[in-house]
Amino acid sequence: MFLGIDLGTSSLKALLMSADGTVIAEASHPYPVNAPHPGWAESDPQDWWNAGAIAVRKVVQSYAAQVQAIGLSGQMHGVVVCDGAGNPLRSAILWADGRSHYELEHYRALGTEALRPLANPLTVGMAGPSLLWLRQGEPEVYRMARWALQPKDWLRLRLTGQAATEPSDASGTLMADVAAGTWAIALLEALHLRTDWLPPIVASRAIAGTLTRSAAEHLGLPADLPVVAGAADTAAALLGSGLTTAGDCQLTVGTGAQITLVGDRPTLDPHGCTHLFHAALPNQWYTLAAMQNAGLALEWVRQLLGLSWADLYDQAFTVEPGCDGLVCLPYLTGERTPHLDPTPTGAWIGLGLHHTRAHLARATLEGVAFAIAQGFAALQATGANPDTLYLAGGGSLHPQWRQLLADVLQRPLHSVETQSASAKGAALLARLGIGQDRQIGEPWKEKQAIPGGSATQIAPAPQITIPNSPSPALETAHQRFAQLYPAVRSQL
Ligand SMILES: Nc1ncnc2c1ncn2[C@@H]1O[C@H](COP(=O)(O)OP(=O)(O)O)[C@@H](O)[C@H]1O
Ligand SMILES: O=C(CO)[C@@H](O)[C@H](O)COP(=O)(O)O
């Protein structure tokens, strides 16, 4: 059996998979995203560590002795600075964090040619700009840290005592050459950013260490289990859903929402609106539209309105499409695709006496769906036009919410069979890792054949949501949504 662990933004997911790819059990445990200052988004890695023990123990139960290997996936872009043993020197700075706006100027000053290897738009919340902020904001921490790691790489360091990363997470840091799969050392030196705290880049399927005795006790597993490098959550989710062919497209609705499109070469977006990241398999990349505020905005509104998840959805879907003139802009943490702008704020616009709590709830769902549709349009502007999308993520489970997403996107949505496609992808990488009997720390650029029984053979679940024909009220709300963005942005 194989254990996949996905260190998400809102919760850690654990998934136990048998050798034939069947999911035996799934569990999750939540933790908070904290905003100690306006525009900041941080989590305490100790919360991740504690959640790991709870979720893993729930899925493993009596199967502990049968687990053969562990794979990791996790939220992208953020950074944990820690000592050599993995003790964090401060809270993790997450992808939703907007503090590094001014640090992007250091990048821009290098000029377009120097930035080309990054293959990505310059965005706040990515490790590179966040570390530049740390250099001036917390110089002592900047100086003292041994490692600067992405969240799942930090977790692996704590589990194995070994520091490593792999191409999919490295490509989301604004510190890597995405096509070459190496750190962009020349660019980092030009930024005067430390490079000695970056870990080696190994293949996603490489065994990057083995479980230490104390970590094994923490998780309730045998010591010395192999732990593979794993992949970024969006890369692992593609693998977990069996989407490994160029043109495959998936929408994941979690804390953020992402639309991912598999490609077989590192093709740049001519408009510079979407991201390009390395996939979990060698010689594969994917284009990604990233919307900052999905489950994050729904959770904030749910708490504000004092509703359970069931009540939020029940009440929202008593209201007619278009919410009687109410539009919600969900930009609680700015927006990435298509605006690449950390400044817009959230808003409900068009409030009247006739509006109720149920209207506020539905308008938020519609606003998140419209934001996702704008991301899809940015992906289409690169020349792609997927006629169907796979649907994954813990924020995609309610049938009427799925229907609203299909209606707004005007595409059929195939929901995938596992609750956490990313954790499934991580378990599949664990299986690949030990099937190959690989050396610890093997460089990822070596030719790697995919053994039989690989992820490409996993059939996605057949459940499909077909879009309704366009509703005039929903279309009007969508158009108003698009027009209102300039009203909520500001000049920094
Ligand atoms: N019915 C629901 N139950 C739990 N979470 C939900 C539900 N509907 C939407 N969500 C949102 O989905 C997110 C959880 O999805 P998940 O894929 O686990 O996220 P992540 O990987 O970012 O931790 C949360 O942000 C939560 O607000
Ligand atoms: O920002 C991106 C991709 O660019 C996400 O992949 C983050 O990693 C967050 O994922 P969730 O926690 O929302 O699933």
UniProtKB/TrEMBL annotation:
SUPFAM superfamilies xref list: Actin-like ATPase domain (SSF53067)
Biological process annotations from GO: D-xylose metabolic process; xylulose metabolic process
Record EC number: 2.7.1.17
Keyword Ribonucleoprotein: no
Pfam families: FGGY_C, FGGY_N
InterPro entries recorded: ATPase_NBD, Carb_kinase_FGGY, Carb_kinase_FGGY_CS, FGGY_C, FGGY_Carb_Kinase, FGGY_N, Xylulokinase
Gene3D superfamilies: 3.30.420.40
Catalyzed chemical reaction(s): D-xylulose + ATP = D-xylulose 5-phosphate + ADP + H(+)
Top EC class of this enzyme: transferase
Domain Carbohydrate kinase FGGY C-terminal: 251-430
Entry keyword set: ATP-binding, Carbohydrate metabolism, Kinase, Nucleotide-binding, Transferase, Xylose metabolism
One Gene Ontology molecular-function label: ATP binding
Family named by the database record: Belongs to the FGGY kinase family.
This protein's name: Xylulose kinase
Organism (species): Thermoleptolyngbya sichuanensis A183
